[in-house]
Amino acid sequence: MTDDGRFFMSEIAARLSGCEVPLNHGHAYGFDLLHAIMDTYVGRHPELVYTRDRAVGDLLLPAVAGVVTRLSTARELMAYPGVLSCQMNVAIGDCIQPKRSSGFCAGYVQVEGRTSAEVQERMQRILDGFVLDVAYTPS
Asked: pLDDT by residue (tens digit) across 3-54?
C-alpha cells in the first residue's frame, strides 16, 4: 500500500520474488510475509509485527551431472550453525541431468545470522563441507 492508500503491485502479475525470498524475510523479521501478502490481495491491512532483526539467505547446493553415489544428508546440513531449514532435491541413486535454470541445484539450505557477513561465512562453511559424489554416465 502506498502512503495515500493505493495498492501498488511489485513483480509481474503478482508473482512473488524468486526462490525462498518471502520465507527468508519472514525468518529475518519474525512475521509471516506470505500471509501479509495474501491479506493485501484481498483488501485487508496486515498488521506487521517485527519480532526479529537478523539476516537470512538461501544457499543453493551445487549439482553436477551423473548418478549420485554419495551425498550430504539433510540431517548433516541442519547441524551447521545458523541453518533454519534444508530441502534436498536429489538422493543417492538419482541421475542428475543438468537443467538450464537459475534454481538448478542439489538442494538448498536457509541460513541465519546476525549480519549478512555472518550468513555468508556460515554458507561458506556449509559449502566447504558439502559432499556430492557422482558416477558419470556416458551420454
From this structure: 887 766 665 555 666 657 778 888 888 888 888 888 887 889 988 888 888 9
**Which residues are within 8 A (CB) of 88 and not within 5 positions of it... i.e. 6 or more apart?**
61, 71, 73, 74, 106, 107
Residues 107, 78: contact at Cβ < 8 Å? no
Q: Which three cell numbers stand for residue 91?
A: 538422493
**Grid coordinates standing for 128?**
566447504
Give how far Cα 7 sits from Cα of 1, 2, 11, 41, 122, Å: 5, 6, 13, 9, 38
C-alpha dihedral sign at 135, 136, 138, 139: positive
Q: Which residue has the cell 485487508?
A: 44
* HEC-encoded secondary structure of the chain: CCCCCCCCCCCHHHCCCCCCHHHHHHHHHCCCHHHHHHHHHCCCCCCCCCCCCCEEEEEEECCCCEEEEEECCHHHHHCCCCEEEEEECCCCCCEECCCCCCCCCCEEEEEEECCHHHHHHHHHHHHHHCCEEEECCCC
This prediction has a pTM of 0.76
